[in-house]
Every structure is written in structure tokens, then in C-alpha cells.
Amino acid sequence: NNFMPNVKEIIDLMGGRVNKKEEELINKAYEFAKKTHEGQKRLSGEPYFTHAFETAKILTHMNMDTQTIVAGFLHDVLEDTKTSKEQLKREFGSAVASIVEGVTKKIALKTTPEDRAENIRKVLLATIKDIRVILLKLADRLHNMRTLKFLPQEQQREIARETLEVYVPVAYKLGMYRVKSELEDLCLRFLEPGIYQELKARISMKKEEREREVKKVVAAVKRLIEDNNIPAAVAGRAKNFYGIYKKMLAKKIPFEDVRDLSAIRVITTSTENCYKALNAIHSKWTPILNRFDDYIANPKPNMYQSLHTEVLFEGKPVE
Ligand code: MN
């Protein structure tokens, strides 16, 4: 339980995109957070520092810049240690200090709805000055959601609800699919534990089958797109639990009737090539009626643009 993660893991994850000076700064932040949080524990029993480390690691996976990763290590030192903002500024520069200040809660101990709203407002206002504040807040929340089972049940539900109502839509609007998708599944686990466990049991049984299916469709779509000389990357994913749950709710159907458990994505080079790819796919596989959306002609409010369709692939719907 007292295992201390190594900073080398972060440096390795950053690969070639970090120079000597940046590496030193990351090292310094790692040591600073380890020292100032010393003796503090999470409810899981782990050293508090593991939370700072995991937050920095999530930001590294998001391909964030050095200052944000440094702020990730330090994000709780103003709230939970004797460190002052001036000290942070001196040691790590004013950008890092204001990012950390931006995620520091105004009201740390109480959790009335008013306090929570006030804390969110503070994060949003700081985000106007520096977008990296909200990205750090998302990484912080993701790790807190991953370790939510150690909190009292009442708090689990409050935090999960806030996550679903505030942070999931923000992650979505920022185009951070992976973060959004993991947050959604974690929210479902704490807000609808019965449904979550049922989906988990049913879907894990089918997981290998689903992965094989996705690979097969990706290969077929890739061949078709290549045959039509359309420059494109083709990727597939199995839908997350929350996506399946939403579909069951929206269509009022049981799990057995959710058939399109996978989705394929074709990314190409121009609007014209998007329609060419769609044309090729619809010519080869039968599109399902009323399952087509043209978000190129009608962009979503966040300016998201793409074409959505469902077709029958060997008798099964694929999105
Ligand atoms: Mn935190």
C-alpha cells in the first residue's frame, strides 16, 4: 500500500517530446508534491501523493504540455498543504501557480449544493483565462472517480451525479472521447449499480466475440475504402456501458435487443471524401432506415461535423 510511483514513468510516457529543462521541472514538481503531501493518506489507505501522481499521469496520456503536467503534480498543494501561491510562483512560474489556483476549491470542507456550484463557477472562470485549468480538473475528477468506491455512499452518489451533469458534457464538448467514455461508465457504476453489474456480466461474456466482430468489420471497410481510392484511416470501437444503457432507455428495449454494440469510424481528408466513403459503404451494405445523420450539413452546437449511419453487416447492425 505504501508503494511510491516513480517519476520515470511520466518521463517515459512523454517520450521524445520533453527536453532536459522540462524533465528537471517535472522531477522538481514530483519531489515537491511528494514532500509536501508526506504523511497524508487517501481514504483508500494509499499515500495522498499517489493521487497527485495519477492526475499528472492522466494529463501525460492526454498529451498535455509540461506546465500542465507539473500543475497536475501540484494541484492539491494549495488546498491540502501549507504551500502558498507565492511559493508556487517562485518555484514553478506564474502559469503553473495560476493553473493550480484555478482548481483549488474555495470551500473545501462543506459539500452543500451551493458550495459545489460555487466551486464549479470558480473553475469555469479560471478556465476563461487558461483552458488548461479545465483539462487538469477533468484529470483530477477522472482519478477521483476511479477511486470513488472508498468514499461513503452518500458522497459517491453526489460526486457521480455532478460528474455526469457537469464534467461529462464538458469532456464531450472538448472532443475528449476517452475521458468522457470512462467517466460515463464510472458514473453508471455508482448511480445505477444494479444495471451496471448486469451489463458488466452480460457484456464481459461477449467481449471477445465483440472484439473479433469489430476487427472483421474494420478490415472489410478498409478494403472497400482502399478499392475506391479514398485516403482514410479506419478504426473500430466497442461501445461503452453507458452508451448501451442510454440506447436501452431511449428505445425502451432490453439488453438482448441492443444489437449494434460496436461502431466503426472512417477519418478522411476532405468533406468530399466523407461523402465518397459514405456512398461506397451504402452501395455495399444496406443502410438501416432512419439511422442516418448528416452532421456535415447540420453541425452539432459544438461545431462537431461528421456523417453517422448504421448498415447491416452480415445481418447485424453496425454503426
Ligand atoms: Mn485532487
Question: pLDDT average, as an integer?
Answer: 91
State the secondary-structure class: mainly alpha
**Spatial order of the strands forming the largest sheet:** 1-2
Give the helices and strands as they follow along the chain: HHHHHHHHHHHHHEHEHEEEE
* Percentage of β-strand residues: 5-15%
Q: List cofactors, ions and other ligands.
A: manganese (II) ion
What's the total count of β strands?
A: 6
Helix content: 55-70%
Count, helices: 15
Ranges with pLDDT <50 over ≥5 residues? none
Q: How far from one another are the termini? A: 43 Å
Which term fits the overall shape? globular
Please describe what this structure looks like:
The chain has 319 residues and is mainly alpha-helical. The chain is 61% helix and 8% strand. It contains 15 helices and 6 strands. The protein has helices at 8-14, 20-36, 49-61, 66-74, 77-80, 85-92, 94-103, 113-129, 132-146, 153-173, 177-191, 193-205, 207-227, 241-251, 271-284, and strands spanning 232-238, 262-268, 293-294, 307-308, 311-313, 316-318. A hairpin with a 2-residue loop joins strand 5 and strand 6 (316-318). It is globular. It starts with 7 loop residues before the first helix and ends with a strand. The mean pLDDT is 91. Manganese (II) ion is lined by residues 51, 75-76, 140. The site of manganese (II) ion has 4 residues, from loops.
